Amino acid sequence: MDHQSKYEPTNGFTRWIDSRLPVVRMAHDSFIDYPTPVNLNYWWTFGGILTFCLVIMIVTGIVLAMHYTPHVDHAFDSVQHIRRDVQFGWLIQYVHANGASMFFLAVYIHMFRGLYYGSYKEPRELLWILGVVIFVLMMAAAFLGYVLPWGQMSFWAATVITNLFAAIPWVGEGIRTWLWGGFSVDNATLNRFFSLHYLVPFVIFAVVALHIWALHVPGNNNPKGIDPKGNQDMVPFHPYYTAKDGFALGLFLLLFATFVFYLPDALGHADNYIKADPLVTPEHIVPEWYFLPHYAILRAVPDKLMGVIAMFAAIAILFVLPWLDSSKVRSGRYRPLFQQFFILFVVACVALGWAGGQPAEGAALLVSRVGTIYYFAFFLIILPLLGVFETPREMPNSIAEPVLKKPDSPPELEPDSTGKPAPVPAE
Amino acid sequence: MAENTVAGGHHDDDVHRRDFLHIATASLFGVGVGAVAWPLVMQMNPAESVKALASIEVDLSPVEVGQVIKVLWQGKPVFIRRRTEEQIAQMEAVSVDALPDPQRDAERVQQSEWLVALGVCTHLGCVPVANSGDFQGWFCPCHGSHYDMSGRIRKGPAPKNLEIPPYQFVSETKILIG
Ligand code: HEM
Ligand code: FES
Question: If you measure CA to CA, which chain B residue comes closest to A175?
Fold first, then answer.
C-alpha cells in the first residue's frame, strides 16, 4: 500500500498553492488517485451516500433555521409557516424531515456491512469506533431535531427521553432538571435543544473527517476481507468508484424522492400535527422508526433502571466489538457458522424494531425479550466463542487470484457477483 | 539557566523544584478550567424567572365529589381528586405490605377527601389517564402503569407512587401548591 502522490500541479498558480497549502494534492490523493480494492460491492457505496445525506441535512437545516422560531408559543406555528408560506418551504421541510430517516436507513446498512465483513477488526478498530461515535451523535441530532416542531410527539419524546436520565441513582433528578432548565420540558428546554441541534451536525462533520482519515491509513476492507497484495488487486478511486458510488447514490435518491413526493408523512406520526400539550399524553407514544429497537430493549426489562442500562449498553457494546470477536478471519464469507448467527442477528434487530412499535404486552413483549437476549448473546457469547470453535472456509491468496485463474479451473472459491458466496464443496 | 536545570540535573534540589513547578502549574490550570466551566455548566439550570413561577393557588370550591381536575404547576400537571366516602374507606383498607411502594393512604393526604398528586408517571413521565386501569385511579398509556385512588402504583413498570407536591390549605376551599 505504499502510495506515492501522483498529483502534478498544471500551472504556476496551482504550483504556488501546492507549495504553500497542498490541499488540492490531499483531495487528489484521497478521492481521485486513491488506490482501492478491485472487488468492492454495492454495500460499500453507503459511505458516500451517508456523506451526501449529512450535506443535505446541513443545507436544508440552515435554511429551516432562517424561518423557524424556537419558542414554545411559536415553534409549532413556525413549522406550519415554513410548510405553507415560505417559498419552497414545503420541499425543504419534507426533505429535512424524511432525510433523517434516509440517513438512518443508510447508516444501519453501513453498520451491518461492517459487521458482516469484519471491517471493525485489526487494523480498523479506531475507524469502527469513530463510526459508532458518529452513530451516537446522529441519534442525538435526530432526537433534538424531532423536539423542534413542538407537536405532541415532540413534547412527549422529549419528556420520556429526558426522564431516562432521572433513573440514575442519586444524581439523576438533578441531571434532569439541568437538562430541562426548569421543572419540566418547557421553553428553556426547547431553546437549548435548538442550539444543540444546530451544533451537533457540525461536530458530526468533524468526526466524519477523522473517520475518513482513519479509513485512509489502512485503506478499505473488501468483501473477501484479505489485504490487497499488489497492483492487480487495486484500482484508482476515480473513475471506478466515483462511478459506482454515483450510480448507487442515484438509486438511493429515487427512494428518497419517493418518500418526499409521494409518502411525505408515512414515516412520521399524525399526533405530531397536534401542538404540544403538557396536560395530555397521546394514547400510544412511540419514537421514530429508527429508535424502535432501542425502545423495545428499554421496555423488555421490567425494572426501570435496568431497562435504561440495557438500552444504553446495547449501543455502548458496539464500542468494544473489535475485542469481543475472537476470529482472525475478517469476512463473513469464509465463516460458515458466523453467517447463520449473523442472519439471526439481523432478524433479531428487525424483530426488536417491530416489537418497539407495539404496545408492550403479549407477543410483542415476548419478542422484545427474546430479541434483547439474542442481541446481547450475539456480542457477549457467540462472537467470542465462534473464533475458537468455527473452522473457516479456505481463503484465496489474493483478491485477484481467483479471477486471474484459468477459466476451466474449478469455481470453488469465487463468490458470484451479487456478493453471495458460491456453494463450497466440503473439504 | 534552562540548560543548567534540564540537562544537568546535578542538584537534587533542582529536580524537586521543577516537580513542584509542574504540579503547581497543572493545578492552577485545573482550577482555571474549572472556574471557566462552572458558569457554563450552571447556566443550564433553571433561571431565576423560572424559579419565581414556582407556586400557584387553586380554588377547590367548583370541584364536585368524585371529580378529578388537572392544574398546571411548574409546567407539570397536578391531579386533584375529591374522593367519595366509599373511595376513602377503600383506600384506607388496602393492605400496605403488598404494595410495590408501601405507603398508607393517610401518609398521602392532608384531608382525606382531597388527594393532591403530581400527574407525572414515575416511570418515564407521561400523564396518566384518570378513572381507568385495573384500580380505577389512573392508568398510564405509555407503558401500562396502573395507579389507585390514592395515586399509589399497583401494577406496571413505574417504581414509585405518584409524587405528592408540597401544598397547604390556605382556607377551607383553597390550596397553595409549591
Ligand atoms: C445530522 C444531521 C441532522 C439530523 C439527523 C436532523 C434531524 C432533524 C429531525 C428529525 C427534525 C424534525 C423534523 C420533523 O419531524 O418535522 C429536524 C428539524 C429541524 N432541524 Fe434538523 N437535523 C440535522 C441537521 C440540522 C442542521 C445542521 C440544522 C441547522 C443548521 C437543522 C435545523 C433544523 C430545524 C430548524 C428544524 C425544525 C423545523 C422542522 O421541524 O422541520 N437540522 N431535524
Ligand atoms: S411513563 Fe407511564 S408507564 Fe412509562
Answer: B45
Residues A201 and A76 in one domain: yes
Chain A interface includes B146 (CB < 8 A): no
Edge-first strand order for the sheet with B76-82 is B68-73, B76-82, B114-118
* Residue with CA at minimum distance from ligand 1 atom 35: A65
Q: Give residue A309 CA to ligand 1 midpoint distance, Å.
A: 28
Q: What residues of A are in contact with residue B147 (Cβ under 8 Å)? A: none
Please give the residue range of the domain that contains residue A331.
288-390
pLDDT in tens, A191-209: 999 999 999 999 999 999 9
Ligand nearest to the CA of B157: 2
Given a cut of 50, is residue B107 above it in pLDDT?
A: yes
The span from the CA of B132 to the CA of A320, in Å, is 45
How do residues A276-293 score in pLDDT, each as one tens digit? 999 999 988 899 999 999
Domain-embedded: residue A227:
yes
Enter the ipTM: 0.80
Q: How far is the CA of A322 from the centre of ligand 1 (A)?
A: 32
Q: Rounded mean pLDDT of A174-183? A: 95
Please tell me whether residue A208 adopts helix, strand or coil conformation.
helix
Q: What CATH number does residue A218 fall under?
A: 1.20.810.10
Beta bridge partners of B153: B147
Q: Do B76 and A361 touch (CB under 8 A)?
A: no
By annotation, the residues of B acting in catalysis are 143
In this prediction, residue A295 carries a pLDDT of 95
The count of residues in chain A is 427
Q: Which residues are registered as beta bridge partners of B147?
A: B138, B153
- Tell whether A135 is covered by a domain: yes
A398 is a domain residue: no
Sign of the CA dihedral A231, A237, A238, A241? Answer: positive
Q: Are residues A246 and A330 in the same domain?
A: no
Residue A417 reports pLDDT greater than 50:
no
The mean per-residue pLDDT over the stretch B114-124 comes to 94
Q: Does B123 touch chain A (CB under 8 A)?
A: yes
Average pLDDT over residues A33-49: 96
Q: Taking each helix axis from N to C terminus, what angle separates A89-116 and A46-65, rounded to the nearest 10 degrees?
A: 150
CATH code (residue A318): 1.10.287.980
Which residue's alpha carbon is nearest to atom 25 within ligand 1?
A61
Among A112, A101, A122, CA closest to A46: A112
| A231 and A295 both lie in a single domain | no
Residue closest via CA to ligand 1's atom 41 equals A93
Q: How far is A271 from chain B (nearest CA, A)?
A: 14
Number of domains in chain A: 2
Greater pLDDT, A3 or A103:
A103
Q: Residue B7 pLDDT > 70, yes or no?
A: no
Is residue B151 within 8 Å of residue B94, measured between CB atoms?
no
In this prediction, residues A339-362 reach a mean pLDDT of 95
**Whether residue A309 sits in one domain with residue A233:** no
